[in-house]
Amino acid sequence: MRLGDLEFIVLTDGTVRLDGGAMFGVVPKPLWEKKSAADERNRILLAMNCLLIRAGGKTILVETGAGEKWDAKGRDIYAISEKPGLPRELAKHGVKPEQVDIVVNTHLHFDHCGGNTLLVNGKARPQFPNAKYYVQKPDFEHAVAPSERDRASFIPANYLPIKEAGQWELLEGEKEIAPGVTLIPVPGHTHAMQCVKMTGGGKTAFFLADLVPMTAHLPLAWVMGFDLFPLTTVENRKKWLPEIVRNEWLALFAHDPVVKAAYLREADGRWEAEPVKVD
């Protein structure tokens, strides 16, 4: 999709399954399972959607999915699928790993940054050797020393090799990383998760990351049990969703396996999604 001189495509690193109760927090299962069916292990299906952006002569990748460094136990727990897989998705669009200039991680949970690295002779190495990797500094600091509550969401092999290679750019606030591409801290899910705003040609698209993971999460109070600061998430939803509706921005979803992008409409005090095809 083109936004003036900026172009973006929604790619996917495949799918993962996470516990439905954790994905919907305090929302009772009889309500959320109407929108997202659970399997026999109470897991719901999530896509790992990523963005390929070309702007200002830069090739930018937003999110890298879960990656390919999984053993059989982990693959079974999370039902991780590598098909089509991010490297193959990039290749379909003529992008080699060494051609990526910037990698953006909205935060460092494993399903958003696992493809940052790959195994070379059993050791994790940066998958995009010429790229600067961007994340907010408070999120990096928490990932290095996570709490007991959320330690399982972090895998050091996804981000410490980037530090060893000197490829991290740790941000402390909003930053335009290329013409029309701005990273905006939106805390709640983590200390400083960042969303991605793309603007060009009089149009705007907004990658919601885990502020609203899927269209099923559009009800204001339907926040994840994974959120470190759920009330902050609610406040940021009250800030950003009306702006997306009012200005007719295109909303992009990180985890929806069916609706990757949609225009949001307000009806009777609720937000509804009008799907748009973007790939």
Account of the protein in words:
The structure is a single chain. The protein is globular, with a radius of gyration of 17 Å. The strands form three sheets. The chain has a seven-stranded mixed β-sheet. A seven-stranded mixed β-sheet has the order 10-11-12-13-14-15-16. It has 279 residues and is of the alpha+beta class. The protein has helices spanning 20-24, 29-32, 72-78, 86-92, 110-113, 137-144, 160-164, 230-246, and strands spanning 2-3, 6-19, 43-55, 58-62, 102-104, 117-120, 123-126, 132-136, 168-171, 175-178, 181-185, 194-200, 203-207, 250-252, 261-267, 270-275. It starts with a strand and ends with a strand. The longest helix is centred in the C-terminal third of the chain and has 17 residues, at 230-246. It contains eight helices and 16 strands. The protein has one domain (2-275): Metallo-beta-lactamase, Chain A, CATH 3.60.15.10.
Short description:
This protein is of the alpha+beta class and 279 residues long. Helix content is 20%, strand content 33%.
